[in-house]
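Input:
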Amino acid sequence: MNTPFSIIIADDHSMFLDGLTSILAEEKSINIILTAKTGTQVLKYLRINTDEKIDLVITDINMPEMDGVELNAAIKAEFPKIKTLVVSMLEDAKKIKILTEANANGYISKNAEKAELLKAIKSILEGQNYFSPRIKQILMEAMFSAKSEPEISLSKRETEVLKLIAQEFTTQEIADQLFLSKHTIESYRKNLISKLGVRNLAGLTRYAVEKGMLE
Amino acid sequence: MNTPFSIIIADDHSMFLDGLTSILAEEKSINIILTAKTGTQVLKYLRINTDEKIDLVITDINMPEMDGVELNAAIKAEFPKIKTLVVSMLEDAKKIKILTEANANGYISKNAEKAELLKAIKSILEGQNYFSPRIKQILMEAMFSAKSEPEISLSKRETEVLKLIAQEFTTQEIADQLFLSKHTIESYRKNLISKLGVRNLAGLTRYAVEKGMLE
DNA sequence: CTCAATATCACGGTTTTCCGTGAAAACAAA
DNA sequence: TTTGTTTTCACGGAAAACCGTGATATTGAG
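Output:
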């Protein structure tokens, strides 16, 4: 018999953490070394116990302090030998894309059955990545739809001005705050309006609010 | 020894369901009769197997088809003897309030530890309701903060005009659409601005978006 | 019925936004 | 180093929003 695999689990919801632990405790080939509620806790552990061989980190995406995406990136940068499996509530195309680009070894949804979870873990521990058909499909769709979206990107200043505009400041007030000419701010207004494809202040404000740009 | 308690668990996330099942399987005094992914499944089961004695239904709030709040209400209406324990991701004051008013027997967050879950289940099965101190506190705060909010109410027309304003229509355009004078729309603008305590179009738009007035 | 809230309309004046058109300097990427 | 993006500034005119200060008619609740 081989030595059991060592894994770490990170999820901010205790109950889910306990549940996962309980499921995996039944597996003789798996040793749960640590359960954590934030990405930082996991990283801290890995940095201190460098001699301990960890095979896999299972992580949620949504966590306080350091989320699963960041944690995955950090692990891949500092401990490239450690495999990662991301488990998430939502099937977020963008995050999945980022994760695949950051070499995560697997991604499954919390909608997945216990059987699929075990299958994913086994695949990854054997050296194969695991992305369910459903996830692959979402990824593909995101690729195509991404092309239809012209991907509006705003510069730092543009973002800064837009925020202030949406916060009910007038052109003059913004100019004063940023120590710029009011003509400059007017330029930004115009650019933003054409760039974002809106008609007026209402459109600008709506964009800012919907993109969550205001605190 | 008493006969074990019969419980049903409902949660749309398989993995959580499996986890919970795994945790509770360790308890000899608990028999898991059914696990379901929607509230309707649970209700259907209860209606068919009326002879089977169910002690407790553990349910998530966020589920497709029929959520935990509705499920709780339905159970309390049709099967008042069955106890309910609601488990939720978020600590939503409004929903907690509704649930307590609908006589749910307990509410715990998924942030809760396994120990608290077991404590809640035991309390409820022994006939006592269980709401954690944290939940009680949130409930209290909601009560007070509800009173402090002056509750701005807009008339039908005001709402209608505000929606159009936030959708980038000008005063003249709105007047044309509603077959009103532009002066009338200007009056509404003024009233809305003072009523909502904002400075300009940006504030109006922000209010509309944040209140979810625009589909 | 009465009173308050709602809905409608009006005008003149000020401020702000919107539009077109242009351009120079700084900076980063190729 | 050339090229593209970002940041900065300028002017004039048109359009729209904002402000104050009204008024009248309808309507719904008490």
